[in-house]
Amino acid sequence: MSTPPKSFHVKSFGCQMNVYDGERMAELMAAQGMTATTDAAAADLVVLNTCHIRERATEKVYSDIGRLRREDGSRPMIAVAGCVAQAEGAEIARRAKVDVVVGPQAYHNLPSLVAEAAGGRLAIDTDMPPESKFGALAPRRRSGPTAFLTVQEGCDKFCTYCVVPYTRGAEVSRPWGALLDEARALVDAGAREITLLGQNVNAWSGEDDTGRMQGLDGLIRALDRLPGLARIRYTTSHPNDMTQGLIDAHGDVEKLMPYLHLPVQSGSDRVLKAMNRSHTRDSYLRLLDRVRAVRPDIALSGDFIVGFPGETDAEFADTLRLVDAVGYAQAFSFKYSPRPGTPAADYAGPVPAEVMDDRLQQLQAALLRDQQAFNAAAVGRATQVLIERRGKLPGQMLGKSPWLQSVHLLTEARIGDLVEVDLVAAGPVSLSGAERVAQAA
After folding, report:
1. Residue pLDDT, tens place only, 101-116
2. Quick count: other Cβ atoms within 10 Å of Cβ 141?
3. End-to-end C-alpha distance for the chain, whole angstroms
4. Which domain of life is it from (predicted)?
5. Which end of the chain is more exposed for a tag (fewer CB within 10 A), N or C?
6. pTM (2 d.p.)
7. Are 157 and 200 in contact (CB under 8 A)?
8. Closest C-alpha among 344, 336, 350 to residue 304
């Protein structure tokens, strides 16, 4: 029997939902009397909160496990959590020396699993129980100026390249009352901005406190009435769940920031169909036109995959033309990587690695061009910046504009303050601001 851990370290990979899950796991362990540490080498327990979206994610886990062995041959207790744990299950324990394996729908059981492992037994829980894990989690008590709030999990879209439906399960929406309670707790703990999270966050739906069915726009409007909350964001959205009510909220709700992350993945209709994306190039562009009609200054973001099986030069050129048509403020782009168990992993026509490399470089150059243009167009604009942390220079603070741009400025404002600034200069990925007044009310 080993000694129960007294300190812990959580290392989260991948998406913002993993960041949220990592925070909740940390809260669970702190509630057991364990102390958090930023030094994995000194921790009694290390939780690797994994992501399974990209190729070689599994091998990265084994590499990280190996690096946790100390010079004297000892190691901390190791828990592998998240989507790799869900996908690999007992295989992780067979290949590496770990103590706990827990999937993303079962991490509320982490304290009991750690106790089981301290008793000398391998503890594994990758169940997807019908009851929500969220009811077993303690109320939020700590927050920075920005906070994540998971409102929806899972995916029913079954894009042919994606493992999320298999590792996170079907789409599930958290209840209205629980979300408002958690949001209030976050604001009471210091959050000025809340980002609503979900694999398909705009698929959220639920009954409000009057029994009326609401979509994500209804939830946003309820949060808009929450005293002390200054900003609302949401991510990640699917084009098919972008309702007119949600579009209208971008024009009506002042606290809803002018930023929309709406993945498209490709500009080719044939590739989109092969991906099972269920939208077309034209329907996506028309949707963006509707959003811009109610919020002309909105910053648009997207996701792209290059080198999907069978993608031709002409189809990749369609993607570049879509990028030119949209003018993204920022975007994320990746080379296709086959994920075991997904339909696309068996598709014919793999694109050579060197072709994917060239296409990704072309795409990223176009996206960077548009990001720089968006930032340059913001120079001279007066806006508010939410201060999130200190900068590297004396008196320098860093924060975000409403359009999710990083802004640095010299100010005496504190973390969590909203500061009125003039945006005075733009770089490739950030802007400089000059404070207009000491502090916004």
Report:
1. 998 888 888 989 999 9
2. 12
3. 56
4. Bacteria
5. C
6. 0.84
7. yes
8. 336
Provide the residue count of the chain: 441
pLDDT digits (tens, 9 = 90+) for 324-378: 999 999 999 999 999 888 999 999 999 999 999 999 999 999 999 999 999 999 9
Q: Is residue 418 helix, strand or coil?
A: strand
Single-letter amino acid code for the residue at 6: K
The residues with which 386 forms a beta bridge, in sequence order, are 400, 418
Tell me what percent of the chain is helix, strand and coil, each rounded to the nearest 5: 35, 25, 40
| Residue carrying the six token digits 């793999």 | 350
Q: Which two tokens stand for residue 174?
A: 């958290």
Using alpha carbons only, how large is the chain's radius of gyration in Å? 22
Cα angle at 61 between 55 and 65, to 5 degrees? 160
Locate 158 and state its tokens. 């079954």
> How crowded is residue 143: how many other Cβ atoms within 10 Å of its Cβ?
19
What span, in angstroms and rounded, lies between the C-alpha atoms of 383 and 361? Answer: 33
Map tokens 């099986």 to a residue. 309
pLDDT tens-digit readout, 252-283: 999 999 999 999 999 999 999 999 999 999 99
What is the b/e burial string over 339-378, where b = at least 16 CB atoms within 10 angstroms of the residue's CB?
A: beebebeebeeebeeebbeebbebbeebbeebbeebbeeb
Q: Known binding site for [4Fe-4S] cluster: residues?
A: 15, 51, 83, 155, 159, 162
DSSP secondary structure letters along 240-307: GG--HHHHHHHHH-TTB-SEEE---B-S-HHHHHHTT----HHHHHHHHHHHHHH-TT-EEEEEEEE-
How many C-beta atoms lie closer than 10 Å to residue 425's C-beta?
Answer: 13
DSSP annotation string for 115-160: HHHHTT--EEE----SS-GGGGSPPP----SEEEEE-EE--SS--T
109 touches 157 (CB < 8 A): no
Side chain identity at residue 236, one-letter code: T
| Cα–Cα distance measured from residue 302 to residue 247, given in angstroms and rounded to the nearest whole number | 17
Both tokens assigned to 241? 């769940």
**Binding-site entries:** 15, 51, 83, 155, 159, 162
How many other C-beta atoms can be found within 10 angstroms of the C-beta atom of residue 213? 10
